Amino acid sequence: MRQAPRKKIVLTTPWTERAMAALRQDYEVALFEGDLTSKAFLAALAGADALCPVFYDTIDRTLIGRLPGRLKLIAAFGVGTERIDIAAAGQAGITVSNTPQVVTEATADLTIGLMIAAMRGFSPGQHRLREGRWTGPDVKDFLWHSVSGKTLGIIGLGRIGTAVAHRAKAFGMRLVYHSRRPKPGLEAELGLEFKETLEALLVDSDVVSLHVPLGPSTRHMIDAEALAHMRPTAVLVNTGRGPLVDEAALAAALIDGRLFGAGLDVYEHEPTVHPDLLKCPNATLLPHMGTAAEETRTAMGLRVKANLDAFFSVGQALDPVAG
Questions:
Q1: What is the DSSP letter of 244?
Q2: Measured distance CA(209)–CA(235) in Å, rounded
Q3: Most buried residue among 15, 20, 245, 249 by CB atoms closer than 10 A?
């Protein structure tokens, strides 16, 4: 019996070797590393059954309107899909999926790392050492803040926010949170305290960590007004979405001493970072490394493949994204 041709999958960047090998076992894989608005990309999409962009690719309404008719799945490598026009995809009869199940632990690890680095002054300490300005230990030098015993305010108690709470509990931190609704089960398990308003959380926290999806109601949720409610000794950590924070307002608060520090892994206009933030020694800045672990990126690729497998076998992706 003649074997059915393999489905063609278009990637916009190569995955880890293990994930690529698994994908190539079952699919024809085409790799296009270039301008997604170009004619060359449209040519690469000819005959494609699915497109697998990564979390920093933009798949807008115009591009979706130019996709080949047989392409009915955009299987995104990553959790964030704000760069994909979900509504336009739905109107075109295209399913969008992502990989929410496999990024939790790596992102929570990085969140805790940023929290400690920002509170203890790792970034300015390392710069002084590397630049040859360190003259040896001094009892009154690097008097930043300890983590143990402080209050951590978690905004958004989903998978990652909960994983951060589990880790922070090991540091003896007091845990408060704000979300759309209370979660009594987690409150009992972790000793969490629910704050009904964002302002109540900000006022009561030594560290504020952001873990909510990006949308009209959360864009710039941390603006000048919100920052004014935070303690001048507090630290803001963002490993969620860059536009949750008004970077200009944050930089001004850090420069003026109205906020002690910040730890950021995501930015409003990536890869551009607000120039004033780059001048802040009390800001620990990472280049969007939240899931950048070999194990996690491999798991993300394998989860994309699992979405492809499910869609082509039963017509339903494992992790569909609602419009």
A1: G
A2: 9
A3: 245
pLDDT more than 70, % of the chain: 99
269 is catalytic: no
pLDDT of residue 141: 86
Q: Where residue 243 sits, what CATH number does that domain have?
A: 3.40.50.720
**pLDDT confidence of residue 142:** 86
Residue 219 falls in the annotated catalytic set: no
**Taking the model in full, what pTM does it have?**
0.93
Angle at 195 (CA atoms; ends 189, 199), nearest 5 degrees: 150
Which whole-number Å values give the CA distances from 265 to 107, 268, 323, in the listed order? 10, 11, 26
Residue 322 lies in a domain: no
Enumerate the β-bridge partners of residue 9: 29, 50
Q: What is the pLDDT of residue 2?
A: 54
The active-site residue out of 178, 229, 241, 297 is 241
The single residue of 33, 270, 294, 295 carrying the catalytic annotation is: 270
Residue 118 has pLDDT above 60, yes or no: yes
270 is known as an active-site residue: yes
Q: DSSP state, 222?
A: B
Question: Which structural domain, as residue segments, surrounds residue 38?
Answer: 8-102+294-314
Does some domain include residue 321?
Answer: no
